[in-house]
């Protein structure tokens, strides 16, 4: 049976502060904006010309983003402006198996990861990879497509350019030991969001609030760390 497991997920924008900016300049310009324009249709996510995200990566090998995403009629997150933006819902199921270029299908997990289309990989190659950068996002869960929180849901992360790990990871549910969690299926583990550092250590946790938006931000400092 195919079961859609979903997280309602408004991904976001990163902004940077530069300590060398003159005080009259905008201190935190938006670098990448993942908010969805209110008039965007689902089909627009399949084209680089119209999507804020990469139309190709990272998703089930036979799926298009317009088959994966939903545009639910729900409340707006705190960073959405009613006349401008709308939220976006991501679904995963047993078709969400990614095949890396020329490699084998990754059957150990399901993937539906939106990549900001203006992001480039190499360290320092875009403004989100230098200075001090803040990532903002909001999440809300879809009651009708509940997650099975005995599993690990890696929701937001920033991967190192050499793919050796993540600079930070935002994760929900029971986190596997191999990913830095306890692997122990307790209610406290299931029903909490966790932020992990670059060594997968949990640096922040908070209970999930079902039925409402939760807002998060993580700041990466490429200068002093
Ligand atoms: C991507 O970059 C282009 C060119 O700099 C810019 O016009 C556009 O707004 C950016 N898109 C997003 C979604 O950040
Ligand atoms: C969206 O939800 C609101 C409030 O629940 C409702 O009034 C409106 O008719 C809904 N719109 C659509 C297109 O379903
Ligand atoms: C994608 O389609 C091919 C060809 O039908 C099939 O062999 C493969 O199993 C499909 N992949 C997934 C993840 O369903
Ligand atoms: C949730 O996942 C656990 C672990 O895989 C499994 O034992 C359980 O049956 C699942 N629950 C539902 C409702 O599918």
Automatic annotation (TrEMBL):
InterPro entries: GH131_N. Residues 1-16 form the signal peptide. Residues 30-224 form the Glycoside hydrolase 131 catalytic N-terminal domain. The keyword Signal applies. The keyword Signal applies. PANTHER family: GH131_N DOMAIN-CONTAINING PROTEIN, GLYCOSIDE HYDROLASE 131 CATALYTIC N-TERMINAL DOMAIN-CONTAINING PROTEIN. This is Glycoside hydrolase 131 catalytic N-terminal domain-containing protein.
């Amino acid at each position: 049976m195919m079961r859609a497991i979903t997280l309602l997920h408004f991904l976001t924008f990163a902004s940077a502060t530069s300590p060398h900016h003159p005080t009259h300049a905008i201190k935190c310009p938006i670098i990448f904006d993942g908010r969805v324009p209110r008039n965007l249709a689902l089909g627009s996510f399949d084209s680089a010309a119209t999507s804020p995200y990469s139309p190709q990566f990272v998703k089930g090998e036979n799926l298009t983003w317009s088959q994966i995403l939903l545009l639910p009629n729900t409340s707006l997150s705190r960073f959405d402006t009613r006349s401008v933006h709308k939220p976006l819902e991501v679904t995963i199921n047993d078709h969400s198996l990614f095949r890396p270029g020329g490699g084998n299908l990754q059957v150990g997990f399901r993937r539906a990861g939106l990549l900001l289309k203006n992001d480039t990989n190499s360290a320092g190659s875009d403004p989100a990879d230098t200075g001090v950068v803040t990532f903002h996002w909001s999440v809300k869960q879809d009651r009708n497509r509940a997650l099975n929180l005995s599993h690990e849901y890696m929701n937001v992360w920033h991967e190192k350019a050499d793919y050796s790990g993540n600079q930070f990871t935002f994760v929900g549910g029971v986190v596997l030991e191999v990913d830095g969690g306890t692997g122990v299926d307790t209610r406290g583990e299931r029903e909490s969001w966790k932020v992990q550092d670059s060594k997968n250590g949990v640096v922040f946790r908070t209970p999930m609030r079902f039925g409402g938006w939760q807002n998060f931000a993580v700041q990466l400092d490429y200068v002093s760390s």
